[in-house]
Amino acid sequence: MMKIFTASQIKEWDEDTILEQGISSLQLMERAANVCAKWIVENFDLNYSVVVFCGNGNNGGDGFAIARFLFQKGYDVNLFVDPTKTFSENALINFKKCKEISGIQIFNFDQVSAFKFEENTIIIDALFGTGLNRKTEGKFAEIIKYLNDVKRTKVSIDIPSGLMTDIITEKSAVVFKADHTLTFQTWKRSLLHPETGRFGGKVHVLNIDLSDEFQTKEFSNYFVIDDIMIKKIYQPRKEFSHKGTYGSVTIIAGSYGKMGAAVIATKAALRSGSGLTFILAPNCGYNIIQTTSPEAMFINGGENELSNFCVEDDSVFGIGPGIGTSQITSKTFLQFLKKQTKPVVIDADALNIISQNPSYFKFIPENSIFTPHPKEFERLFGKTENSFERLEPARQKAEELQIIIVLKDHHTQVIMPDGSVFYNITGNSGMAKGGSGDALLGIITSLLAQNYSPQNAAIFGVWLHGKAGDFAAEKFSNEAMLPSDLINELGNVFKSLQ
Q: What's the pTM value of the predicted model, to 2 decimals?
């Protein structure tokens, strides 16, 4: 798994790498610049010209080196800089190297309004790096505002200028809007939250061979769910097994007019590998369930809404999609909750019922999994100003209640009882549709029934859900894909793991 470090830790990481590998800080800068230049060469041909905007610190030094490398590869390169400011030592060295190349034209920032950006132009932002600790002002703010209005491909180096690495940027802050961000070695937290991540465009994590020892030993509470982690979690099915080997799932979902939620959750559980799958739903949905999900066994839970929870005790329960919050359903659910001793997966209306009855928090079994979207989280635990702030009560409540909170977002966060946070980077905007959360509930419940630990079921579940969404979007587009398309792609995700 990939650790996420703070700006100060990243600085230490650089310093440790320099000592451990016996290289200079300038050599490390050149290495990073070379990797960025290589990415640009692989993604944009020589028909593109390059315009690099460099600050006076080490991020600007990266930009100067990138300009030099791209010029050597045959690109038409121009530089913009403020030569009146004091450069860092390495930035100055690379700036002087660029000045020695007659083919690279160098302009002052105040000349940008007269510059003609050709149609095939890549604008490279190397103004500020991860060390920024205040909002941009003055000449730099003006240049960023101007570039944001230029309709050309934009690439930020390490982090979009104006963003801070670890905290939310003020709403009034001026931030470079990138199409691509080439970040070094690991994700930065500000690239993972919606208020700030929207400035980064598509993020590419580039390996610059920073110290493995530092990465292993240095503490962090924040992680990215990556493919290496998933391959360690994934448990391939054994040849000599039977349906009982893979557990019993009971999805408790649906009410009159909301049986689609029950269907989606049930199908997702089936496609995720559950051995036996039951659906407890109102009788009004009997024909719907039997027609759409013949592999699942129907349990009558009432007429038009859930009024009884007669279920097998040895099953793993996923509860909430479309059940409503009527008086009888709420009362029956809370009675059911009081009897549970094993982890359950709780979503949607079941979370809303708990938010109306907070005294029932004490009955939630340890290692249960909550899957709220931001509004449901607010009803449960209170309003927060932004997604950065929301993580703190989420961590507190996960620890206090000893539960796992899957906080659904563009980059969903899985918060563990020990306070650690795992960001998921699969998924896309096409999943921002009603029914996607119901599918996630079915997937996680199914994995929990298959003897994945609650922690691994949550982590693997959000990754699977997002990856299947990526496969569906590739096939149908972000606009046209449906949650049912996502479910149908789960098989292809499992095949890719094998």
A: 0.96
